Amino acid sequence: MELRQLLALLWRRRTLMLWVFALVAGGLAALTLLCETQYVASTKVYLYHSSNKASLLSRIGLDSAAMGAASLTDAERATYEELGQTVPVMTAVIDELDLTRKRKSLQIIEFIPFVRLLIDHFLPGVLRRPMTYEELSHKSIVHLIFPRPYLNAAMMDDADILEFSSSADSIELAMAMTNTAARSFAARETAMRQAECRVLADASDKELVRARADYEKALAELGRVRQREKIVKLDSEAEKLVDRYYVLSGARDSNRLELLKAQGMLANVKAQAAKRPEFRKSGESIQRSALVDSLKLTLRDLYMDLAVAKARMTPDHPAVKEIEGKIEEAKRLIKGESLKVFGSETISTDQTFSYLNERAAEYAAQAAGYESQDAAYGTLIDAVEGQILAFPDRAAADSLLAARVNAGEVFLSNLNQLHSAAVAGQSLDLSIAHLIEPASAPGKIDDYMRPKLTLMLAVGIVLGGFLAMCAALVAAYADPAVSSAAALGSLGAMSPASLPRRPGPGRAQAFRRLRDALFPVSGVPPKLLLVTEASAGPADALETAIGLGTALARAGRSVVLVDAALTHPTLHTRMHLPLGPGLAEAVGGKVFRDAVTLPGEEPNLFVLPAGEAALTPEEADRLLDSPATAGLLDGLVRRFDAVLVIAAPVAESGDACSLARTADAVLLTVRLYVDSAPVVAEAAGQLAAAGPPPLLVVVGSPTDDATPGEVFSGLRAWLPWRRKKSG
Length: 727
Prior knowledge:
By secondary structure, the chain is an alpha/beta fold.
């Protein structure tokens, strides 16, 4: 489609485009003016790892993998973003600020001008209800029409900053929401870490009792052996075995500390998940998985192989690396199975539980690895003890007990340090969140108002223009009406003729061209012409017959116009003549034909009206099908040079097809951009089957439409101030 054609199409559909544009742009403008204004605010929280806190957390074992870097990893950024939108953080904001929202029924009433001001001033608490977590944290397009308080947390793209943003019906409430959310987030994160320290302190406190008892027992037994026996010096091989025993015991004790940490963290995560009311547990504890049990046995064997391999090879040896890779793969499988177990115990999930689920699976995998290592160390230590006992009893007993005492002392010392760090962590602020930019009163409050009138007007203009153009194109595509004369060339025996609808010289010249085409200088001109239309509408068939008859009369031919639309006669009104007597009375024999043939507005132009009263369809059919009608028309043909018969629309009556049998030519008027192309095609086919192929006369053309200059001139004349100036 060329640009000129596109512009012409859009101009022709300008009324539709104007309505669509007015609805969209005006609707957005009205929505902006009528809806309650919302104010936005934001608070920024910086997340970074403090060196002092990192030292303490690394000793306790919390987030030790992330302590080496000052910035957050991608996983940590996603985790903290989800934590900022969890139920505990949002609920604390709702409870502290006592957030409420207006009911939709009240907001609909407030669309009435000035009602909102009156209600806010005299009845500020009417028709309000408490906010919920879902309402505070979720926003949709409906929020623009029915606004309510909204709070969101998101990590900034270029920094480790968590930004809390809010919207409310006042700037004070919006600022209070973000600041409260930031404090709640920091308090929540601190409480989680302190809870982990509390669980770890309780577990280490219980383990201290057993470790202290084991150490005192080994120390007492060593004292008794040395008092009772005379100890001999061991050789170098026995000393190596004792050193090996000491190393394995130390490694086992260190592993037990890590196992204690992992079990404490796992218990803390389970306790947090159990407190959530929206989750339903299937039992008191998670059922054991057969796959996890088999993987633990595999891990135990792998750790034993790793210990043996490290005793004979360097840490970088391929065999050692291969065993370590198998161990990591087994841990990954245990974590995946734990995710399935934990996830299957809930009837729904959300961001908070996803975070807890991930941590629980990670701690479960760590605990499984430490348990397998502990079992492997026990087997290896028993083997070394057997080798030591192969030496002389007194020396073996003394060396073995000394190694046990040293190992117990180291384990007890490490356990005391862990317990002290965990106890200290319960009273410290371990959060990595730091409030760096609290929400404050802005200098220019207009920039913090939503929606903004200027922005909505710009959006309305752009969106309204786009939708208006789309509506025009869709309407043109879906419109079955005839859009050009060339599209009807295959329906008539002759090329379609065009008649402009606008009065003026162009219309008169078009009728002259139609007259010359129908009545050439040479040849036999038609005497009886039938003029009809495809469907009911504006009286274009009548106007065509009158215009053609006038052109023929001015050329010196005698012409008579016959109104054969007996059910809805209109010719007499157009020619300013009485309704009857006319055709109906002449065919019925009540009057003579010449007595009811009246002179028209032009010399040589005569009119035969329909009759005194409109007939029913049955009476009209009976009258037009009678031989008397054919005889009357034959008499008119002998008297006048041209007889133009105006018939009812083809789609409404069979009169046109009946009269076409005796006609010399048929004119089918087609209204451009009005008549449906399929209806026109069907009407042309019916007329061609009854008589000669019809000549399609297209009434209307693109030039009929007003130009932009004419429209502008009309608007200027219509404006009140312009009329006053002219007066």
